[in-house]
Amino acid sequence: MRGIEPEEYGLSIHFDKGEPGLLASLVEQVVELLDPDDLARRQHTARSAAKDSGEDPFPQDPFARWEADFSAEVGGSVDDPNAGLDLDDPVVRRIFPDAYPDDPAASHDFRRFTQTQQRDQKVTDAQVVLADLAVTGRKGVCHVEAESVTAWLKTLTAVRLALAARLGIVDETSASEVAELPEDDPRSWVYELYQWTAWVQECLLGTL
To answer: pTM for the full model?
Structure first.
């Protein structure tokens, strides 16, 4: 990424070639965990809108399989009709931490009354980011309106939490261990993404 510049009504992100598609792929995978049906509808709409340009706004990237490669074995279910989430998935647990880990009944009630709203807001924020990325210009410039910046920051946080969960980063010690992985370890590629998304987020905050 070549930097972020303030504009009269927001800011512009100057991506390098391939970066908009890469970021879109990561955001899509988070959305898929939260609302698979919504992702399918949004992809269809975005690709239909881009048909005349002859370009796919969300091209395949070399990290598109990171979730499958680093997913822990998932099993079981949670009896929570409003959640609609697999709380056995480490990414979901990281994005939606247990508010009352020592009180299952209170935790159940908290999720029952808040989970749907939280999930819908995260999906809505992610849709804002994906919509902005879908119209990134040929020179890699993505314009973000002022009212959309918060959605970008929140979505980047969700992506980083997802990557951290897949990498097993829970504290400074585990982060240091992952940072020392050899280049031929596939997890080192995901760690580079983790670092890159952190830098994008820091640049956004710095521009603000």
So the answer is: 0.74
